[in-house]
Amino acid sequence: MKYDPVKKSLGKVFNKTPYTRILFYKLLDLLLLRTWHIKKELKKLRKTIGANANVLDAGAGFGQYTYYLSNLSKEWKVLGIDIKKEQIDDCNLFFTKINIGNRVKFKFADLTKFERSDEFNLILSVDVMEHIEDDEKVFKNMYKSLIPGGTLLISTPSDKGGSDVHHDHGDSFIDEHVRDGYSIKDIENKLKSAGFSKITSYYSYGKPGMLSWKLSMKYPIILLNFSKLFFILLPFYYIIFFPLSLILNFMDVHKFHPSGTGLIVRAEK
User: How many domains does the chain have?
Assistant: First the structure.
């Protein structure tokens, strides 16, 4: 299933004005369960990172998380990087329009080649690593780019049904993924090999989260891939299922899951 064309189509609809784009960000914040988990972790990290921090959004995409980071502290300088040039240009234009282009920048970069020396206090990577074949090289680059004591925060699918793959020969729901998901042991070993310490990992998208994802993301994407006419019906679909998804997201983020289709990982340099 192609995910990027759907995201691109939705982006065009909401990108007509800065206000509709911000509205889109806020709707995504509510709808996407991974955002609930990431925001929970970022609120904890804000207390330890402090002011005047340099933050990297590694794989910034449409700029949703860059926008959230820019609002966590008005003193943070945020750099978003992505491999898609059109998204970089679009994000730079948008953040200039909302008058924070002086402290939020976007640059074209390949994470397998992007490396800075002891520059960032925090690196955020949300649903990016499952798209990159040479993940170990990326983890090493991220380690070098963090200051001593800096933190890497990752959201990625797990091998417990991430990408909606539930058996060895299953196909990923998202065609753009190069791996279906990580085991906790696998990703922690790769991070340790890159030099990271104090690694903590836990499952997200337990039973409540998986049901929420199916209702709020999987089924609408299937229908949109089948016919763009579903865009007309999409608001009515969400009027019915959006409240239920919010309840399920709340349950998922406030509950421990012995297993889940997502992983949240924190690692320190």
Answer: 1
